[in-house]
Amino acid sequence: MTIEHKRSSKGEIEDLIKARYSLIWITSPEETRVEESLRKLCVEREMRLEVWSITEGFKTIANGQGTRDVKDPMKAIDHVIRAEGRALFVLRDFHPFLKEPAVVRRLRDAATELRKTKKSLLVLSPITKIPPELEKSISAVLDWELPNRAEIEQAARKVLPNLPAATQQVIESDPQMMERVVEGALGLTLTEAENVFAKSAVRTHTFDLETILEEKKQIIRKSGLLEYYEHREEFSDVGGMEILKDWLVKRRNAFSSRARDFGLPLPKGILLIGVPGTGKSLTAKAVGALWQMPLLRLDVGKIFGGLVGSSEENMRNVIKTAEAIAPAILWIDELEKGFSGTQSSGSTDGGTTSRVFASFITWLQEKTTPVFVIATANNVHQLPPELLRKGRFDEIFFCDLPDREDRRSIIDIHIRKKKRDPGQFDMDRLVEATVDYSGAELEQAVIASLYDAFDTGNDLSTDGLLNTLKDIVPLAITMREQIESMREWARTRARMAATRGRGGAKKEGWMARYGAPSSNLGDKGPAPDDGDRKIEL
Hints:
- By secondary structure, the chain is an alpha/beta fold.
- The protein has four domains: about 10-145, P-loop containing nucleotide triphosphate hydrolases (Rossmann fold); about 150-225; about 230-400, 3-Layer(aba) Sandwich (Rossmann fold), CATH 3.40.50; about 405-435 and about 440-475, Helicase, Ruva Protein, domain 3 (Orthogonal Bundle).
- The protein has helices at about 10-20, 30-45, 75-80, 100-115, 150-160, 165-175, 175-185, 190-205, 210-225, 240-250, 255-260, 280-290, 300-305, 310-325, 335-340, 345-350, 350-365, 405-415, 425-435, 440-455, 460-470, 475-480, 480-495, 510-515, 515-520, and strands spanning about 25, 50-55, 55-60, 65-70, 85-90, 120-125, 140-145, 225-230, 270-275, 295-300, 330, 370-375, 395-400, 495.
- The strands form two sheets. It has a seven-stranded mixed β-sheet. A seven-stranded mixed β-sheet has the order 8-10-11-12-9-13-14, with helices on both faces.
- Strand 2 (about 50-55) and strand 3 form a beta hairpin.
- The longest helix is centred in the last third of the chain and has 18 residues, at about 440-455.
């Protein structure tokens, strides 16, 4: 049985003790914090609290004093069974000893014996690793919650007096700054939060969000399944797609407590589909910088491990890690390649893909933590239909090839990124010559032309770019039928990411010859939608 966090972890454990649960498993890396909560609980309920470790034996930390030099795991369980009175016993890091059959058997005996007493035994471990023989003997498994906003803010305020007076005044006069600091540290353990606040104070003499996010990066590295993506792209690097960008900008502050007080629900995520190279992945990368939130990239291929049952466990670990550092953005690139085999999963992999996919979409539907999912897909026809049902994502956007103004914007961006002045180029000629080109193809054209210019000893120029463009065959030509099919699908099932065709804009190139659902939408507009810490600065 797993306990849901409808109440605080301290409240849950109090209920379990009142109900005479004899053997409880607590999963948490925060040993000191958990034991402090248990100490307060035992003081309130006038119970003795003894904690055990292989290095120190038993130590009484509530309603009593003294130690017992009992370091053998079997003798430790015997001590718990023989002890008298109302008491709570905690076994630290006991999971390695559960490989021994005799220890497992004795722990099962203890679970039975303790039901007749006013004693409870808690196994406190950073991981949940329960032998099958113990599954029915352990009354409850409780994942101890991470520090809440109040605890994180208290940790920050312990460091505040160490900052320069002017900085303290700025922070105290701007409640939203403290709120952003607290939100940035949510998902860290209390020790991690205290450490990162101290490091930020030493490094910048203030609370620096980038320093706080670096701490979260370490958590991702330890997981091995997720990649922490550095904020290298700015939102201004995304050309075109005004509707999509406006939608994202409006939700920049939607994860704040002010938004909750206003009645706004937490944004769930978006699905970006469309032509390859139109900026779907670039947008996902840029959102992290815009929202100042950690961007986590999930390679679905890493989920499917070699051992039976490991894939399902990997997906649970991904979800747990993402939620642990929330608020965060979870980016899943080329979603259709990871989950395209769900329909035939029963006959190809024993149903593993189906089970992993079911876990993912259930979490997507029911999640209450501030993890915003950005999924991208190039081939919508390979996506399982369950994924496209309303409620999985807030919105499905279709990213089409850029029109004239979008191409002008994209070419301008890439010329500036190469430290050239776009005003020195004939943008009208370049725009006319790049009909049917995707954003990625425009970027590569600038790069290829730059190589040619460097080789000949010249500089990047309009003529050089035009010569390079002659050698590129746009994807819109080689994938004409697929793009037409995607546009037809998107006509009634997705929202356009760009304002193509508005104001009587001229259709051009492939669209002019074959038509495009996104152009039809142009006339109608878009679819609706523990003491003070002293620091040496």
